[in-house]
Structures are given as C-alpha cells and as structure tokens.
Amino acid sequence: MSVIVKTVAKFVVPPIVLFGIYMVLHGHLTPGGGFPGGVIIASSFILLTLAFGREVAFQKLKRSTASLLESIGGLIFLSLALLGIGFGGWFFLNFLPKGQPLRILSAGFIPLANIAIGIKVGGGIFA
Q: Which pTM was predicted?
C-alpha cells in the first residue's frame, strides 16, 4: 500500500478500537452492543492487514490468539447463561441486581454478556 494509506492507518486504528470498546460497554444504554462492537474491533485489524500486510497484523494479534479469544468469548457467554440455573432459577436468569436507570451498572448481567459477545465476534471475524 501507499505511504498515505499506511500513515492514515497508524492514526485511525487506535480510535477505531476505542470506539469498538465503547460500543461493547455501552450497548445496554445506547444502540450498539457486543456484536457491532466486536465487528468494529475486528475491522481495525482488517485495516491493519490491508495497509501493512498479514505479517504485521498477525504480529499484533496472532490467528491462534484470535481463535482462542473467540472460544473464550463463547464459553463466557454460555457460562453466564448457565449461572442462572446454578442460582436456582432458569437459563439466562438475570442473577445480578439491577441498578439505577441510565447508569453503567444498570442492566444486570447484560453488559457482561455484551463483553463476551464482543470478544467472540471480534476474535471470530479476524480469525
């Protein structure tokens, strides 16, 4: 790629990752969530691949690590779903207390599920 594309990629990849993390963490308050946040994070690594080549992108995040993150995200999501049964309830029981509306910790375990989905989707799309 050209020097312009490489220079722009160096500057825009960190804000793209930061925006993806924001989408994952605020998915229960604003439009977004784990899936779009994971796609945005994975797209930053795809931009690195397009600008610098696979070798540079895989130095930042190895394919085996991305595949491991995908598996870990799926296991975390499944564990959250099964914890409801462990607390004497049902599958996907919201076992965490609900907070005050429009606060970060206001949605029970939905933010944790968004994080797990973001890890799974981000790792899966890049792997």
A: 0.87
